[in-house]
Structure formats: structure tokens, C-alpha cells
Amino acid sequence: MQMTEPKIGLALSGGGARAMAFHLGCLRALNDLGILERVQILSTVSGGSVIGALYAANDEPFPAFETRVRAALARGLAGPALRTAFLTEEGLKALLCGMFVGSANLLFIAFTWLLWLGSLLLPAGMRPRWQMETWHLPFRRFASRTTILRKAMDDELFKGKRLRDLQGRRPLLIANAAELRTGSAFYFTPNESGSWRLGRLARPDITLAHAVTASAAYPMFLPALDEELPFDKRDGTRRSERVNLTDGGVYDNLGLAPLWPDRDPSISLNVEPVDTIICCRAGYGLRHDPPSQFMIARLKSAIACIHDRAQNAAMKRLFELRGAGKLRTVILPYLGQDDNRLKHRPPGLVTREEAYAYPTDFSAMSEAWIERLSRRGEQLTKALIAEHAPELAAQPPSGHSTEADEDNEWRRHASIAGSP
User: Fold this and answer.
1) Distance from C-alpha of 256 to C-alpha of 246, rounded to nearest angstrom
2) Nearest to residue 327, comparing CAs of 1, 6, 26?
3) Count of alpha carbons within 13 Å of 407, Cβ hemisphere only?
4) Alpha-carbon dihedral of residues 244, 245, 250, 253, nearest 10 degrees?
5) Which one in 19, 127, 195, 215 has a CA-CA gap of 20 to 30 Å to 345?
6) What is the pLDDT of residues 313-358, one digit of tens each?
């Protein structure tokens, strides 16, 4: 019997507009069950950061919030980004910066390769010991397709709101990005932002659009945000660091990193203990890519394989922590869920096969797809809570399972998450 109120952390995964629609349904289910208002930490990645930031900044009843999200999905972000590119100063800046930085990088690469080839003509003992891998150009990419997207998000969704405007609100928003130079997670929150490698960000004026764009800058299509930022270090000093911020899915596409129960507050930022994790995963089901006969296709499939395995390992770790007693409850609404394993299959279930194939971009989404994806998110969330944690709901769902049934189901899910 649970004697204390659970400390709930909610993670919203990446997955572009598909994730936004799926997560909308998950949020609707949690709201219906009286759980959403009790969530203390909201950890988000990429597409999950877009809807998560909209929810964290929301001052309206849930139906009004849902209407705004549906309208945003129907408009998409591709159109506003194109208008920003062609009709604003940001587009011109990005064009000029791309031409300058692109040309400079090509010349720089050609120069270093010529130096390397020239050194091979010298006797081994006379070759200079240059460490050319540490050389870099002295200027930053100050504008790009990513800054265009940031402006479009600000104009279209966030209307100039800043992270500090969310101070004191619950749930605490943590938008996850990846810092490429140090290979570390970079967290944006209303309280403190930064990385354990770099320190606390000493800028209180970060916009919500900036944090979300950094979290959602898919590296295959969008350059990293290249910035010089001030950080407060552990030794009490303040120093500027050059950072390259990209999609948080590169580091952790499920958004679980800030929620692990074994984080050390003397090292990590934003340590908020939770004992219950609801992780909404909007990834694909089982992949079956076409044959990879060319380099780009091979690399794409290889990256997807690494990406999927990292997410499966994180899911497996969730169940291991639950089995070890470090987490009270784990709920995993997963777009690619095997529907045959649902103990309480809802009537009219939107199946995996009907919903999994939507792309991850931010193009305008049809009403039919919004309904399909959000309905599946709602159905899975309610079914899994009824099966594994009916006590979480304000009014417990029907179909309580026995403790033995729950333990067997946890083990089966854990073995599936880690299976080859």
C-alpha cells in the first residue's frame, strides 16, 4: 500500500510533429485521470520539447491548450520557417553567413589537406608534428537554418516568452539539448541551465524558443547553434565558452537523463528526486529499412540502429531500477507498443500499424493524422495505467491487476526492451 504521494516525473521523447501529436494524447489521458496536475518534473526532447514548453507556459484549461496544439500541428512549422527565411532579416543573415562560413571552411579544409600531403614528401624525421585536428576557424556560424526556425517558433508559438517567466511553476520544465564539443547533456530550465561539464549558464534572458530550438535542431538538417556563452564554474569563476547545441535526442531521445534516481547533486544540475516515471515514447515500431547499397543510406541505417539500441537500453534500465526498488512505478506509453500484450485493450484501439509510419518532420499535419496519433497516445496511456498503476489515478481505472501479474509483466517488458 502506498503511504506517500508519488513524486512523478514525465518524459516526452523526440520525434518531431509525430511526437507532438502522440504526446498530446498522452497528456490528455493524464489530465483525464487527474495525474497531469501532480507531475513535478517535465523532461522533454526535440518534438517533445515543443509541446512540453507549450504546456509548461500554458495558463488555460486543458481543452483550450489542446485546441492550440492541434492548430499548431495543422499549420506546421515548415511554412512559418520558409516565410521567415524569405521575408525577414534573419533569412538574409543566414544566407550571407552560410556563403561566408561555407567558403571559408572549404578553403580551410583544402589548406590543411595540402599541408598534410606536403608533409608526407619530407623524411619521417623532418615532418612537422602539427595537431591539425585541433585547428579551427576563429569565427562562429552566427545565423543559419536553425536560427530561422528559432525565430519562426518564437513568432508562431512562444511570443517572446522567456525561461525565467516560468519560475515557480509546476511542473518544472527541463528541455534537453546536446552539447557537441563536450559530448554532454545541456539542460534548459527556468531555475538553472547548463551542463555538468561547462557549469551554470550565467544568462537569465534565454527565450523559450531558444531552448526548444536547441533541443529540436535535428543535426541531419539543421546546424548546431554555435554560441559564445558565459558560465559560472564550480570554482566560483565566470568564463565564456563556445558551445555547439543540437538536438537532445543525440544524447538521450527519451528525455530520461534528468530523471534517473542516482544523479549526484554535487555534479549534476537540476537534480529533482522522483520515484514514479511516465515516459512517453513516440519512436517507430520495428524498422525494416531498404537495402543499404550506398554510403549515405548505410550511415543513416547505422545511426538509426545505434539510436534505437540506446533507447532500448534506457527502457531496460527503467525496469531494472524499478525491480531494485529505486523507482516506485514505471509507465511506458510507446507508439510502437505490441498491442497483443495489452492486458486491457481498449475498444476501437488505434493500432501500431495504423499509426507508426508518420514522418518526424514539422510539416503541416492533417486532422486525420492528428486524431490518429493523439488517440493512440491517449488509449495506450490509460490502458497501461489501468494495468500497472491504477492507484495513480484520481479515480482508479477498472481492471486492477494482481501484484504477481504486474511483476511478470515488468519482467516481460524489460526482456523485450533489451532483446536483440
Assistant:
1) 17
2) 6
3) 6
4) 170
5) 19
6) 898 999 999 999 999 999 999 999 899 999 989 999 999 999 888 8
Condensed to tens digits (0 to 9), the pLDDT of residues 216-260 reads 999 888 999 999 999 999 889 999 999 999 999 999 999 999 999
Residue pointed to by grid coordinates 531498404: 290
- Residue appearing with cell numbers 515500431: 285
Residue 41 one-letter amino acid: I
Which helix or strand (DSSP H or E) is residue 203 part of? none
Which residues lie closer than 8 Å to 140 by C-beta, 6 or more apart?
A: 226, 227, 228, 242
Sole residue written with cell 521575408: 87
E-strand ranges in 248-387 read 276-280, 329-331
Residue 59 CB contacts under 8 Å (≥ 6 apart), including other chains: none
| Model pLDDT for residues 151-173, shown as the tens digit of each residue | 999 999 999 999 999 999 999 99
Q: Compute the C-alpha angle 51/244/308, nearest 5°.
A: 55
The conformation of residue 162, written as its DSSP 8-state character, comes to B
d(CA 44, CA 13): 6
Give the number of other Cβ atoms within 10 Å of residue 324's Cβ.
9
Q: How many residues does the chain have?
A: 420
Burial class of 83 by CB neighbour count within 10 A (0 to 12, 13 to 18, 19+)? middle
Cβ atoms of residues 156 and 148 within 8 Å: no
Going by their DSSP bridges, the two strands 276-280 and 194-195 should be labelled as unpaired
pTM: 0.87
Residues 125-140 as b/e (b if ≥16 CB within 10 A, e otherwise) read: eeeeeeeeeeeeeeee
Q: How far apart are CA 29 and CA 382, in angstroms?
A: 6
Instruction: Give CA angle at 288 (375, 254), nearest 5°.
Output: 50
Give dist(CA 110, CA 376) in Å, integer.
52
pLDDT value, residue 287: 67
Q: Is the dihedral of CA 29, 35, 36, 37 positive or negative?
A: positive
> Closest by alpha carbon to 72, among 250, 243, 212?
212
Question: Is 406 a residue whose pLDDT tops 50?
Answer: no
Tally of CA atoms within 13 A in the half-sphere of 276 that contains its CB = 20
